Amino acid sequence: MEKRFETATVCTPPLYREFSEYHLQGLLRGTRLFFWACAGLLVLFATAALILGNRSVLPLSLSYLLAAVFLPLPWLVERAARRQAEKGGKEMDGAVDACVFYDDCFVETIGGMQTTAFYPRVVRAAETASCYYVYTSRSAAAVIAKDSFLVGDADGFRAFLKDRLGERFDPWKAGEED
């Protein structure tokens, strides 16, 4: 098999933080919506029960209390996720994420662990101003810095991902925020 692209990205805390921010943005948006919707429904049902004449203090009080607890939870989840990302960045500092891309699959080696992923099984890939993220599952991705190519280059890699992944590849557009 002929190597189409080869990369060696050195993991640093800033690079890991950038990946974590990108990865968490969609996850945290969904978390906020979920908790706020739960709080809103609790308030709505408790208020409707009051209007309809339900005067049971304990269930109504618990509903309002639970709604109040749901409101700050997204920030607590976000804080915990960012703390975990910081910890991961420190643990990965200096590790080399080596990837070799072939016509039908790619092989990622990091920390002595090797993963082979065939393109139909790749969940998605995304491009930012400085990196590519190739997701082999919903939560795991190969991080490929655009300046880490040993074989091939970043522009050719973009075309390669478009060809192999189609709609599952989200290219970066200049002027957009990451």
Describe the structure.
- By secondary structure, this protein is α+β, with helices and mostly antiparallel strands.
- Helices cover 48% and strands 24% of the residues.
- The protein has 4 helices and 9 strands.
- The strands form 2 sheets. The chain has a 5-stranded antiparallel beta sheet, with no helix packed on it. Strands 7-6-5-9 form a 4-stranded mixed beta sheet.
- Helix 1 (13-51) packs antiparallel against helix 2 and helix 1 (13-51) runs antiparallel to helix 3.
- The protein is elongated.
- The model has no long low-confidence stretch (mean pLDDT 85).
> Helical residue percent?
40-55%
Strand content: 15-25%
> Any low-confidence stretches, pLDDT <50, length ≥5?
none
**Average pLDDT:** 85
Give the N-terminus to C-terminus distance in angstroms.
34 Å
Sheet/helix structural class? alpha+beta
Radius of gyration: 22 Å
Q: In this structure, how is the largest beta sheet organized?
A: 5 strands, antiparallel
- DSSP helical segment count: 4
The helix-strand sequence is EHHHEEEEEEEHE
In the sheet with the most strands, the strands line up as 4-3-2-1-8
* Count of extended strands: 9
